[in-house]
């Protein structure tokens, strides 16, 4: 929650959210509850619940939020946690938020079930706070999220013709399809968070819903592009995740797509396959470092960052259409910090 340090009104509401998540994650008991509680406490940014809170406060003139908004914020964070637990299994990622991923501490079977539990409780909380209307919002967003991850998993050519046991990377992904994917994977849930805040009972005008959703959408696209950039170029001590997880999982992201377009010698596919399949760890690490250097040298990192910046600027312009006040300023600052983040 340290992302919101310096914003006591937001933090105060997020402590209510954390308290509710603690109650919910206590459900299964034993090892699973302990692992879930540990995961929420590892420097989670609490971005999505923060957006629910800010959207609710912007629509409500800054008065403390009702229980419904807190429940929706907790539900969205729990859904996000469930998706990360499953994502780390799908990606084979061993660390999350600077500690062991849940499938490492609990084993895959219990980690899948812990994710399922959070997923189910998240739906129950959302339904409790917003009934049919809430579920009509939530269910298509979740379906879109999962479809995008399914699409992402098709990034590998696993046919025997690829000649590689774990499949060869499909580099011919268009930037348009990449964007479609990250909208589903991230922006849809960001937009939902803003919408969930705008559902706050006293929100004076439903006219704020669409502008708030647009803030979430653009912010989400910018956020995921930076996330994908950090996966290759970030410092693992800051991100809390090892470098190159996407590549190893067969996920082709914007820095690689842009670098491929410039890679006339076609060195990148070979290096990428080495980074994924070389027999020795040292060779894999070395190949990954070569991929990073190549992407950097051809300007693809800078270009990727510029695309993220473009979406962030769109979010900033949308924010300026919202009612002015301290909460709008907080949102504006958060938006800028997300673009410049290194974690
Ligand atoms: C992180 O992406 C992953 C997601 C945003 C979504 C993952 C969703 C699933 C695995 C589907 C299951 C969903 C539910 C709701 C149970 P990333 O891998 O790019 O980011 P990372 O670097 O943080 O891992
Ligand atoms: Mg991942």
Automatic annotation (TrEMBL):
<protein>
    <submittedName>
        <fullName>Heptaprenyl diphosphate synthase</fullName>
    </submittedName>
</protein>
<dbReference type="InterPro" id="IPR033749">
    <property type="entry name" value="Polyprenyl_synt_CS"/>
</dbReference>
<keyword id="KW-0479">Metal-binding</keyword>
<dbReference type="Pfam" id="PF00348">
    <property type="entry name" value="polyprenyl_synt"/>
</dbReference>
<dbReference type="InterPro" id="IPR008949">
    <property type="entry name" value="Isoprenoid_synthase_dom_sf"/>
</dbReference>
<keyword id="KW-0460">Magnesium</keyword>
<comment type="similarity">
    <text>Belongs to the FPP/GGPP synthase family.</text>
</comment>
<dbReference type="GO" id="GO:0008299">
    <property type="term" value="P:isoprenoid biosynthetic process"/>
</dbReference>
<dbReference type="GO" id="GO:0046872">
    <property type="term" value="F:metal ion binding"/>
</dbReference>
<dbReference type="InterPro" id="IPR000092">
    <property type="entry name" value="Polyprenyl_synt"/>
</dbReference>
<dbReference type="GO" id="GO:0004659">
    <property type="term" value="F:prenyltransferase activity"/>
</dbReference>
<keyword id="KW-0808">Transferase</keyword>
